[in-house]
Amino acid sequence: MHSAIGTPPLAAALLLILQLLSGPSPLRAFAPAGGVLLRTRPSIVRGRSPSRRGGVRVPARTVFEVERSPTREDEASSAPPPIAEGRGGAGDVDSDEDNATRATNVVLLAGFESFNRELYEQSGRLLPPSLGPVSVKVFADSDIRGNASGEFATAVGEADVFLASLVFDYDDVSAVTAMLDSAEDVRTQKTRLIFECATELMEYNRVGSFSMASAGDGPSGPPPAVKAVLSKFSSGREEDKLAGYLELLKVGPELLKFVPGEKAGDLRTWMEAYRYWNQGGLSNVRSMLQLLVLKTRKNAAAAANAGDLSLPELVVTPATGLLHPLLFDESGSMAYASDPKSYMDWRLSSACAKSAKERKFPLAPDDAPRVALLLYRKHVITGQRYIADLIRAMEAEGLMPVPVFINGVEAHAIVRDWLTSDREVEKVNSGAATREPTYKPNEAAEVDAVVNTIGFPLVGGPAGSMEAGRNVDLSSKLLSDMDVPYVVASPLLLQSITTWKECGVLGLQSVVLYSLPELDGAVDTVVLGGLVGDKIALVPERVRKLAGRLNGWVGLRRTPVKDRRISVVLYGFPPNVGAVGTAALLDVPSSLDNLLKRLDKEGYNVGKYASDPNSSGESLVAALSVLCENAVIAGGFERMQSAVEVRMERARGGDPTVAETLARPGGGLGGAVVKGANVEFDDLENMLGKYMARKVRRAWPE
Fold first, then answer.
1. Mean pLDDT lowest for which of 353-362, 529-538, 650-659?
2. Which of 228, 230, 265 is nearest to 247 (CA)?
3. What are residue 15's DSSP bridge partners?
4. What number is the average pLDDT over the span 30-57?
5. Which terminus has fewer CB within 10 Å in the chain: N or C?
6. Residue 131 burial (CB < 10 Å; 0-12/13-18/19+)?
7. CB–CB of 580/620 below 8 Å?
8. Other beta carbons within 10 Å of 299
9. Of residues 365 and 16, which shows the higher confidence score?
């Protein structure tokens, strides 16, 4: 990544890898998610994931490749990279003949990426027939504890190669670990690849002699050698080490060519497999499966049969970049902008306008609010349609998206190094703020808002979620310096649209979208859609809702402070029993008083409240309680002010049932009075919705 990763000193890294391989339990904490370098507490996010198909079972499909003739694509594939020597992952077999004739069982479990289920199945169908019989079964996380759980458990037990990705849910992780523990000799023989899952699952990674299993009762976290290696591939900041890990994976397999020994070969196989998986796409996934099958089959007969096989070159997509539907060419290939400034230069160019006109693509005006859109790279490289739909809809709604795709762990670096705002520029110019040394002024662009479509914490993404709140201070500083609205808006990846409409956002999905981003300072969350089968789909009304909210947030930010109108809503449930302004262990009146005085200092118009020595939050809460009484509501606006004044008179008369502060001059209200306006019921329904409008109509039938 441009902002955090420099050119790694390969020689130093090679020496450190040698050191790494010399110790027990190498790379046990090399998981890019699941608490890499961060874990000090249990790492699983609790919360159940509902069946995304509304209870309808979508069975895993089995693929046997035994009859297909080689295709030109097979024959044209480039020569395979050397497969490092070392033990295979399938363990000892009864005989070479048995191993050569029986199918190699490969089981794939797609967690947060169930949208790739079809891709994985298609990749299995395209395996070269000369590889021999291979059975590929693909499951989604809904199969772990759903109707297909028995089939899944059986498949795990019989798997020669098991690969799980993006599994975080507590119950899912517990179920999978139990299945792996019950599988015969799971930790000593069979190949297990666990990519970007909770740490408890990551420890099941094993290829031959390479394992991430815990070494006895040793402390969790990376060995010193791992930290030393990562330090060569990142800026040195803790929050950048996860991105450095991804950089290490790019060169690690090449470095390991020069490292002798069985463990190095097995580690290289794991790294190669991860690189293919991380880059994604049909060719890469097929190559990953082919690599793992070759590694699993150790006997001479299988090796001879596989001699003519080749692994295509890794198809590489940038780790980060910017995209737009108008950057697709006629063949469907995508060109990516390398940084936000380059993207904005193109987006505001006559070439972009001409292309939009020719394709009848709606473009927002040049002075439209600019919204940084953080996209999950996996969704981009697998061609998820919702991304282009989202960008098009935002443009049509008068917003100019700046769509940046990321792996997920470097969102903070994008905000820190590639994005800025007019407010931040003013702060820096006045000396009120300083730039981080990693900031790229020649690559950065100003934006009016940031939308994260991935969820999770801003720092670390899925990896940062394992210890909630660890990097909140860093996230808060980044967002405070920019001083723009930070919104989380994403389709649900663990729920179907039907389940969401029936039950709302459930389980782990609510943690990803609401709880964790709120700690960072997200001001809003909008669900954009969900799953239809295994496909991600948007709900157009929800995209319009997001656009409306963003236009509102940006419009509010551009409105002079003195002209902004703010509504303060106090808790008042259950109604009409004196519960207004109550909250467990909180002093609501004092908080309200402090809030209004701070707003006054920041330039908001709060009337005479801040300058009136008699004003009191206690009086405001008492007055609001009066206005919530049924008899007062039924009397309409005309009665409301008089009802408050009656209570003020009772307070002056010493009535112990009335707040004492109401006896102060002006009732301690700081000049606040009840105001009302005539509103048509149709307009009221548009503002409040049909349910609340009906309640108002019953209270005020006239």
1. 529-538
2. 230
3. none
4. 36
5. C
6. buried
7. no
8. 16
9. 365
Q: Please, are residues 214 and 203 in contact by the beta-carbon 8 Å criterion?
A: yes
**Which residues touch 695 (CB under 8 Å, ≥6 apart)?**
none
Tokens 């297990």 sit at which residue?
A: 192
**What token pair was written down for 679?**
């509103």
Closest alpha carbon to 292 in 471, 568, 105, 109:
105
SS3 state at 451: strand
Q: How far apart are CA 166 and CA 170, in angstroms?
A: 12
DSSP 306: G
Q: Which amino acid is at 85?
A: E
CA angle 613, 616, 619 (to 5 degrees): 135
Q: What 8-state DSSP symbol labels residue 512?
A: I
Strand partners, 206: 192, 211
CA distance 97 to 100: 5
Average pLDDT for 40-60: 37
Q: What is the pLDDT of residue 89?
A: 38
Nearest Cα neighbor of 235 from 30, 404, 2 is: 2
Residue 124: alpha-carbon gap to chain centroid: 28
Residue 372, φ and ψ in degrees, nearest 5: -70, 130
Beta pairing partners, 123: none
- Show contacts of 634-638: CB within 8 Å, 24+ apart: 634/699, 634/700, 636/700, 637/674, 637/676
Gap between the Cα atoms of 384 and 208, Å rounded: 35
**Residue 634, beta-bridge partner list:** none
Write down the pLDDT at residue 304: 42
pLDDT of residue 672: 94
Nearest residue to 486 (alpha-carbon basis) of 520, 516, 463, 512: 520
- Minimal CA–CA distance to 109: which of 200, 201, 246, 28? 201
∠ CA(216), CA(21), CA(164), 5° rounding? 70
Q: Encoding tokens for residue 276?
A: 């293919």
Residues 6+ apart with CB under 8 A from 533: 53, 58
Contact 368, 339 (CB under 8 A): no
Average pLDDT value for the chain: 79
Q: What pTM did the predictor assign?
A: 0.74
Q: What's residue 85's pLDDT? A: 36
- Between 332 and 471, the more confident residue is 471
Instruction: Measure the CA–CA gap between 468 and 453, rounded to whole angstroms.
Output: 19
Tell me the DSSP string of 110-122: ESTTGGGHHHHHH
Cα separation of 469 and 453, whole Å?
19
Give the number of other CB atoms < 10 A from CB of residue 381: 19
Give the integer Cα–Cα distance in Å for 220 and 2.
30
Q: Determine the 3-state secondary structure of 57 from DSSP.
A: coil
| Helices 10-22, 262-279: inter-axial angle, 10-degree rounding | 120
> Phi and psi at residue 164, in whole multiples of 5°?
-120, 145
Residue indicated by tokens 């008089």? 642
Residue 532 and residue 511: Cα distance in Å, rounded?
A: 21
Strand partners, 682: none
90-99, 282-291, 355-364, 421-430: least confidently modelled range:
90-99
Entry field: residues in the chain: 702
Task: List Cβ neighbours of 69 (8 Å cut-off, separation of 6 or more).
Answer: 129
Please report, in angstroms and rounded to a whole number, the separation of the first and last CA atoms in the chain: 64
CA pair distance 550, 554, nearest whole angstrom: 6
Q: Do residues 564 and 553 touch, judged by C-beta distance below 8 A?
A: no
Instruction: For residue 164, give the 3-state DSSP assignment.
Output: strand
Name the pLDDT band for 243 (thresholds 50, 70, 90): low
Name the one residue in this structure whose structure tokens are 């701070």.
Answer: 598
Q: Is 466 exposed, middle or buried (0-12, 13-18, 19+ CB in 10 A)?
A: buried
Are the C-beta atoms of residues 287 and 306 closer than 8 Å to each other? no
